[in-house]
Every structure is written in C-alpha cells, then in structure tokens.
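Project standup — Tuesday

K.O.: blocked on the structure for the chain from last sprint. Re-posting the sequence here as requested.
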Amino acid sequence: MRRILVICAVVVGAVVLIAAALTAYAFFNLSSIVARNEKRILARVSDELGRRVDVGKIQAQMGWGVSVEVSGLKIADDSSFSAEPFLAANEVSIKVEFIPLLRGAAKVTRLELIKPDIRIVMNARGDLNLSTIGSSPDDVRRETSKAERSRRAKKRSSLADLSIKALSIEDGGIYFNDLSEKMAPIRVRHLDFGATNFNPASEFDVATKFAFQGEEQNVDVSGKLGPLLEQGVLDAPGIPVDLKLKLDSILLDRVRPLADVGSEIPPGLSIPDPVSVSGTVRGSFGKLAIALSTDLSGDRVAYAALFNKPAGTAMTVNANGIWAEQLEIASVNLKLSDLELTASRFSGGGPQPLSAQIDSNSFNLANLSPMINAAAGYGVAGMGEIHGTAKLDINAPAMDGTVTLKQVAVKPGPSWPGAISDLNGRIRFSDGLEVIEPTSFTLGSGHAILEGRVESISPLKASYALKADSVKPAQIFAFGGRQPGDVINQLAVKGTADGEITSPRISATIQSTDGSLENVSYRNLDLTAAYLNGRASARPLNVDVFGGSLTAEADAVFGAAPTFNLTLVMKNLNVEQALRSQNIDAASTVHGFLTGNVAASGSGADWNRIKPTLRGSGRVAIANGKLVGVNIAADAVNAVAAAPGVSQLVNVAFRSSHRGVLVDPDTELQSASMSYQQVGPRFTTHDLHAQSPDYSITGDGWFDMGKNISMRADIRFTLGLQVAIPITVTGKLPGVRVLPDVPTLAERLAMGAINAPGDIIRGGVNAVGSMVGAGPSAGSSIPSIPNPMNALKKLMP
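H.V.: unblocked you, prediction finished:
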C-alpha cells in the first residue's frame, strides 16, 4: 500500500517537474518561430530535466491564453536505472495565462496528460529514478557520496516558481520496480489523476482512481498533499500527506507477489473471495501513519489447518501501522462473531514468523468453535478469554500466555447423550509448553478434575491426570448400548498421549474403588490400558468380581463389529452371579465357585452377536457346586433298579445307605474340574471330573450356554457298588434324560465286570433291552429303548 501511495506522490512530483519543463517549453513556442527552433527548444527542455525529450508534433494557439498541444511525448530515463522511457504520453495539453507571459511569468491554468505511461524504478540503495530529474549526467556522475547528494537535495527547486490551477492525468499507467526485491513489479492501469490549486509551496487537493490487479478501476484516493517545498527545497520524504482511500475487489493471492506488501502476508492466510478495504494515510511520505479497515463478513477466511470461517459470519478487521523504512504494524482489532481481539506489539514478518501480543474480551465459544478445525464437531459452548503473545508460524504456531475457560461444555457428537459441562479452568502456554491447571467440570452427573501437560503438538507429547467421584458411561458414551446402571466410582486416571495429533497413541492407568459395568459389580479395579487407531489393550486388568478376583489381559478393535481377544485368570468366582449378570439361562441351574485359566476371542457389538463368534479354551474348577433341579446319580440308580435282572444290584441295603443321595433333587458337586474347547456358545470336554461325598463322576461330551447337554459319564459310588455305572445325559437342564449306557453296561455284565450270580447276569442281559425308568428326578425322564445287545446273549454262560 505504501508503494502505491509513494508512486502516486512521486507521479505528482514527476508530473509537476514535467509541467515546469513543458510550461517553459510552451513559453518558447509562442510564435511562428516554434517550427524553426523546435530542436533548440527541446534541447533546452532536455537540459532543464537532465533527460532527453522527444516529441512527435507541437501545436500552439493564442486566445485569452496560450494553448500548447504536444503529441508523442517521450522523456528518457536515467540510463543507470533503465533504457526504457521514463514517461511516454500520447498527448499533452498545456494552457497558460497570456498576460503574465508578457511579464516573463508562466502561470499554468491547466496541464493534462493523456494516456501517459510512467516507469518508476528504485535501485538497491533505495534511490528513485526521479531523484536525478533536473540534473545533467555529469552532475550525477560527480555525486558519488551520500553527503554530496544531500547537499544537492538542499538546492532550491525550480518548482518554487510553478503554479498550476488544474493538473490531470487521463487513463495513465504506472510501472514500479524495486530492484532490491525479488517480488513482482507493481503495475497500475487506467490511472485518472486530478490536482487543483496546485502550488508547491502550499497544500493542494488531489484525487485519483486507478485499476489495481485488473482492468477495472478499484482504487480511489483523495485528500490533500503538500506543501512540496520547504523553504524552496524539495524534500520528498517530508511531503505532508492526508489522504482517504478505498480499495474494492482486491484478491489476496494477487497481492502476495508484490514487493514489500506480499512479504508481510502470513503464508497460511487464505481469502479466496474479493476484499474491500478503506482507510486513511497521514503523516509524510517518509513516515506514513496508515489506518485500514475491512468487512470480511461475506468472505471465506482460513488460516492453515487451524481456522476456517465460512461466508456469512460477521468479521471485521481494523489495522493501524507506520510505514517508514518498513511496515510496522501497531495494532489490529478483530471482531469475529462476538469475539473482540486486539493484536499489538508486532514483531517479525517477511521470512520471520509474525508475532504479536493478543488480548480478547470474554467471548462465546459456541459461535467460534465451529470455525476452529480442532474443535469443530464437538459442540463446544461456554465462555473463553485469551491473553498472551502469539506466533503465527504455519509449521508450528505457538503462544505464550493464558486461555481462561468458564462454564464450558463439550459434546463429542450429535448421537452422544451427553459429555462434559460446567468446565472451569485455565490453560497456560509458555515456550511451546501447555499446562492445563487443575480444571473442574461435570462429567455426566459426576464431578471431575483434570490436569495436563502438553510438551509438543506435532508430534504430540502430553501427559494428563483425571479424578472423578462418579462416572456413568450411559450419560456420556454413545457406543456399545451402555447399561443405564453402569457406574464407575472414585475414578483415577493417569496417562500419556503421543504420536500424530490425528491418530494419537494413548496410554493410561485406570483405578476405581467400586462400580458396575455391563451388569457386573466390581471392587478394586486396577487397569493399565492403551489405545491407538481404534485398537485398545488392557495389560493387565485386576479386579474383584462375583465374590472372587479376576486378572485379565485383553485386546479389542473398535468399529461396526468390535473384536476382542482375552485371557483370564479366575479365582473363586461365583458362577451363578456371573451367569446371571449376563442374562445366561444356566444361572438358575449351575452354581458354585469357579477357579481357572481361560482364553477367548470373539466379535460383536452386544452379547447376542458375540456368542456365535466365540472361540476359546481353558481349564476350570468349581468348588461347592450344584446342578439345580437334576440329580444325575439318583436318575442313574433308579434306571438300573428298574431293569429286570439287574435291579438286584440296587438292593434295599444300597438304597438305605444312599437314601440322602437318592432323594436330593440336585446334583451336589463338592468339586469339579475339566479342560475344554469352546466354539460359539458350546463347550466340549474330554476330562470332566466331579466329586461329591457319596460318588464321583467322570465324563466326556459337551454343554452350552443355553443349558443344553450331551454327555457320556461314569458314576462310581463310594460304598455299595464296586463298579462305575455308565450313563448318558442329554437334553436341556433341568429336564435332562439320564439313562444307563446300555451297551457299555451289557458289555461289563458279559465280561464279568460285576461279581454276581450267573442267573442275575443272564437275567440282566435278557432284561436290559426292556428297561423302563422308575422314579426319575424332577424334570428328567427315562423312556423305553430297544435292546441292542441281543447278540451278546450267546456269550453268557
């Protein structure tokens, strides 16, 4: 902007100098001697300007004044700056009062340049090609030192005798090139300029319009300049300036390549829509005080990946600065929705990151957070306030200061039932370090305190600590169909976060005194967990549940169909409580206390989806167990007793000595153990062993979570029988069918496995096929079955 103003001012000075020369030229062309003396007159004007002057044609007319029309005007540039013409104009019109001419004075009433092209060049020392106008080449060569140039600058200017009532430029162009910069030259097109009551020794009015970055005039400058001379000496940096300006349809990307201005624009700033700017410029050309304002409400504005304002959001910017040797921004006032932010004490710029003191009012985060990429989508609300020094580095933006948060609420997404509210705290930033001071907030219906420390954002390196009196996941989390009764009491979390900010690796130790999750009541939860890219691990998890303890290591992958792998070490878990907590039907049938090692895997968002995917293995033992509603031993004895020929095996004495076993409605399991393989809800075992005070059972088969069972077993009583009774157990608990294993029993009889009289053995073989159950336990049944052992009769004695 300063360059444009300097250009305009320089053009005014150049035009005035040229006007003086042209006026002198017109003065010498007042009669018919012009044609005969044109070369001499041009030589004199060239000598006055110190530049070669060429014209195409000169015409003079006399009236109340003298009018001179010049076409094809060209004024050469200083050869040390450029070989191109300094000024080239299609037409120049000069009107001079006649009477003063008679006294030897030239009073110009109008000077008009039609379609001039003006080239302004600044060398590496900061000298303009205008500075040598009025000096001969020999003078310029002699002025080798700054002191000599300074003495020359104090020489009385020929402008002192010049007065122009009206000065104008029509459809001109300006080319400005700073040879010390690598930026693109500034080009101004379609310049219209007007000055009235011009007098170099006093203030005068100016107005100009020109096209910048295009073909349509979009810059309008008006105000006052001058006086140009101080005690008759031209001092360009000291010329007073008081101008108003307005710029329309300015595109930021077209400003970036410009010298001086472009280097001050932060690289991450993007404004793709046209911008309008208005302001004032006051002071002197050597030190301009600039005040600019713009309304960006209708524009899209973004900064790197941090900020993105859509069109239609209220935003205004007011900036003040001083432009002397370089642009120094004094302050910037930003209004964005209800945020009022002031930036002051600027430093840096160009190749160095721009930094400034930042201070804001207390503003509503709900209006601002949708425009901050890191906060968008989290429903941030509440009040915030910022104070500190910010560095606008596109690669690593930083801040030294504080952000104060009051009554803040955060909701991770529209489908989440709730999240953080009533957050109050302060974040301190210092030398790239962020410290979250103890910050209180409400987490669902509970209360929590968070502390944290962020040493780096990219890559992320942070630590945190959270304490909460009570957390109800169903009030916070949207996934997993959380149980309304889930609660985590006296939660304490400590951990770290590192890696990429978009996919951080999070690790934590989690402790809780007691609570309930997925209908599982627990105590003394102690968990070391980690999370990365949708994968979570717990290594280890220690917790007291179901009256016992559990140690687990688990891995889970979250998504539409979550998957998991886990290993468990169980000690004295109440089986009935465990099954009932997950609504498994077997809870009413299987009781006892479980100890063992288990490995399992599966996938699904809830238990019904998980069950068919389960795979696992393990070894477990149950103490003080019971199968409620079915007495496997009693059903087996009753079945044997009902079989003709073998009923004598279960005599009155046996029944009397085992009366307690036979009348018990349940299967008592003093201890039981097995190893198993799991596929879906089914468990298969080949080494089931159960022990009660009166008998033991060994078995081979399967059972499932739906209480279905298919098992082959041997029952061996402690007293009375020296043989294991083979049985099959099938059906659904508690209404299972318990049958003697007929083929195995017949084989044992035939081989003499039972020490009994021969008629008993023969009778047993003849009758085994027609056995009918008598007196089964509640819910069980013993149907008649065909005799598959007829072929064995020939083996009997």
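K.O.: great, moving the ticket to review. Residues 24-31, 143-154, 753-797 have pLDDT under 50 and may be disordered. The chain has 14 helices and 42 strands.
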